[in-house]
Amino acid sequence: MQLVILSGKGGTGKTTIVSSFAYLADQSTIKVDCDVDASNLHLMFNGKDISSSQFSGSKKAIIDSDKCIGCGLCEKACRFDAIIPKDGYYEVMEHRCEGCNACRVVCPADAITLEEEDSGKKIMTVLEDESYLSRASLYPGADGSGKLVSEIRKASLELNKGKNNLIIIDGSPGVGCSVMASITGVEFGLLVTEPTQSGFEDFVRAYELAKHFRIKSYVAINKYDLNEEMADTIERYCDDNGIKVIGRIPYDVVVNKSNFESKPLVMYNDSIAGNEIKNMWNIIKNEMEV
Ligand code: SF4
Ligand code: SF4
């Protein structure tokens, strides 16, 4: 059983909800942070990294100047203008290379190799309640976020082999390829939105994506009381499309405190938003029958 928490874009309060769900879930629940560009779920918990391995999201061409005969065929073959002449030979401008292999195919001197690029790290963390968090860190500007998301999700499924534990996935923001990698094969989705026009449009895009992947979707409207008219518009859209709204989270200054202190919001008993998230967790648990 897998539950993904999604938002059409970053900054909607998704991590506040995921970290609270992760706190409320029982110890057997496996967590996955698919926001590989800016992973932050682990910051809300005490934990210990038990493994870390390199990830390669792309390849780069390298020219061996000892073998190069300076024919220039590679420069002509490269559609990305990544190869330039230098001192009678040729060299690759790494930042332009897309690893397409065309230069290697045409090289008559076997002077070109493609080498794996070091793009980031896959990390397995054990949290203080002894549950597992599969996460990653993609280096700035590196390629392969979709592939990296697939790999950390695969690691969570391997942990769950032979068991039937719940997996909670903090989905990548947006609707790009890393989001698709976050949601393939998932049964349940919670879409987090905010009551603004752009929030509504982002939510509709995220919902269309979830529908395409046949994910049973639920909705939470964060800070609904900042624009109740727009919140009503979102609810009407959900009614018309048969999507259940399971949370109307009020604006709450305690959220800032929880972010500042890096603790899940539901740990603060005086938080009105936290209490709503507790209700949401109970509803979604019943819906998933876990
Ligand atoms: S691998 Fe492709 S992109 Fe990179 S240098 Fe060769 S032809 Fe250009
Ligand atoms: S195709 Fe090979 S031999 Fe020719 S310039 Fe490029 S690297 Fe050198």
Describe what you observe in this structure.
With 290 residues, this protein is an alpha/beta fold. The protein folds into 2 domains: 2-56 and 119-288, Rossmann fold; 59-116, Alpha-Beta Plaits (2-Layer Sandwich), CATH 3.30.70. It contains 9 helices and 13 strands. The strands form 3 sheets. The protein has a 9-stranded mixed beta sheet, with helices on both faces. α6 (197-212) links the parallel β11 and β12 (216-222). The protein starts with a strand and ends with a helix. The site of one iron/sulfur cluster (SF4) has 14 residues, from α3.
CA radius of gyration: 23 Å
Order of helical and strand elements: EHEEEHEEHEEEHEHEHEHEHH
User: What is the general shape?
Assistant: elongated
**Tally of alpha and pi helices:** 9
Q: Widest sheet: strand order? A: 3-8-9-2-10-1-11-12-13
Number of domains: 2
Q: What value does the average pLDDT take?
A: 93
Instruction: Report the CATH architecture of the largest domain.
Output: 3-Layer(aba) Sandwich
Give the N-to-C terminal Cα separation: 9 Å
What is shown here, in short?
The chain is of the alpha/beta class. The chain is 33% helix and 26% strand.
Question: Could you name the key traits of this structure?
Answer:
290 residues; alpha/beta; Rossmann fold; Alpha-Beta Plaits; 2 domains; nine-stranded mixed beta sheet; two-stranded antiparallel sheet; 9 helices; 13 strands; elongated; binds iron/sulfur cluster
Layout of helices and strands, plus pairs?
Layout: E1 2-6, H1 14-24, E2 30-33, E3 47-55, E4 59-63, H2 73-77, E5 83-86, E6 89-92, H3 102-106, E7 112-116, E8 120-127, E9 132-138, H4 145-159, E10 167-170, H5 177-183, E11 188-193, H6 197-212, E12 216-222, H7 228-240, E13 244-249, H8 254-261, H9 272-288
Parallel strand pairs: 1-10, 1-11, 2-9, 2-10, 11-12, 12-13
Antiparallel strand pairs: 3-8, 4-7, 5-6, 8-9
Helix pairs in contact: 1-9, 4-5
This protein binds iron/sulfur cluster (SF4) (2 copies).
One iron/sulfur cluster (SF4) is lined by residues 63, 68-74, 90, 106-107, 109, 111-112.
